[in-house]
Amino acid sequence: MIGFTITLKKRRPHSRYKNEKRKKYIYFLPIIIIAVFSVVVAGFFDEEETGKIEHDIDDIQVFKEINDFSAYYNPVVINGFFSYEKGDEIEDEKLLNLAVWSILCTEKKEKYELFDGELSIPEEDVKDRIKQLFSDDVEYKNTSTENIIFDEKSSCYSVPTMGFFSEYSGVLRSVTAEKDKTKLLVECLKSDSFKQDSSGKTVFPEAEKSVIIILKKSKSSYYIESIYEE
Known about the structure:
Order of helices and strands: HEEEHEHEEHEEEEEEEE
C-alpha cells in the first residue's frame, strides 16, 4: 500500500477593490457584436484630396483596424439610426448608444477594464466620441439606458459584454470622396440571415436596405452631416 498526503491551501477571497487586483481585459468585439460583420475601406484620403474616388467591393476588406469609417457606419446600422440631418435634435439616450457602439467597434482591447462581465468606459471617452460623430455643435448630458449605466462616483459607463443581438449588420459597399465630403454607401443585412457554406466561409445574405451616410471633413477627422435610406 502506498501512502500519500494532500495539502490544501485556503484561497484568499477575491475583491475587485484590493490594490493587488489584476486587471482583466477582453477583446470584446467578437463577444458583443454577435453576427455583426463590419467592413472598411483599405485606403484613406489625404486632407488635400479634391478629386472624386470610387471604391468598389473588391477594394473593401473585413474590419480589422481602427481609425476608419467603421466608427461612423457601424453604430448607425446597429442602432437603426437611418434618418438624420445636421441640426436635428438627437435624444441623449440615442447619442449614448451611438457613441458606445462606435467605441466598441473600433477601440483596442487594452483600453477598457472588465469587471463582472461589464466594461467600464470613462465619461470623457463617450463625450469625445459623440463630438467626433456629430461635431461640437451637439449637446449631450450624461444619462443611462436600459443596458448602459452611468455611475456618477466613477464618472464611467458600465457596458455589458454579452446578450446583445443587432437586427442589422452593416456592409460598406462603396466610398465616394469629393472635396470636403465623403459619401458612404452601406448595405444593411439581416444579422440572423448569415450562413456558412460547406467550406465554413460566411455567405452574406441579400441586403434588405441601403443607407447613405454623408461625412463632412472637420479639422482632425469627419463628422456625420446626414443619413438617409437610398
